[in-house]
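ARCHIVE CARD
CATEGORY: sequence design from structure
SOURCE FIELD: tokenized fold
FIELD CONTENT:
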């Protein structure tokens, strides 16, 4: 859920779609861990999607100039708003609006 929130902050429908895609890939990850994946093509495709997801998440953290805390993500998930840096010279205080 946190990944989808960071990547698709503004649109609840896009956020839900992103969440479902990540959840599906997590299911593939579980199959790999438990040794039940049988199709190498599925694994390769999931690996490519996971690589892109990680790159997008890292880029988002760079844009924010930090990694949001769990508390910030929880609050943002509840209020459905973007996590952002407030205007001004200081980057110490971050808020959820």
């Amino acid at each position: 859920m946190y990944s989808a929130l960071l990547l698709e902050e503004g649109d609840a429908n896009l956020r839900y779609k992103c969440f479902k895609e990540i959840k599906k890939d997590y299911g593939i990850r579980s199959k790999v861990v438990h040794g039940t994946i049988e199709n190498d093509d599925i694994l390769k495709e999931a690996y490519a999607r996971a690589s892109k997801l990680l790159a997008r998440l890292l880029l988002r953290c760079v844009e924010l100039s930090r990694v949001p805390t769990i508390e910030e993500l929880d609050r943002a998930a509840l209020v459905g708003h973007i996590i952002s840096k407030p205007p001004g010279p200081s980057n110490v205080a971050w808020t959820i609006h």
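CARD ANNOTATION: The chain has one domain: 2-96. Residues 86-97 have pLDDT under 50 and may be disordered.
SHELF: design records, drawer C
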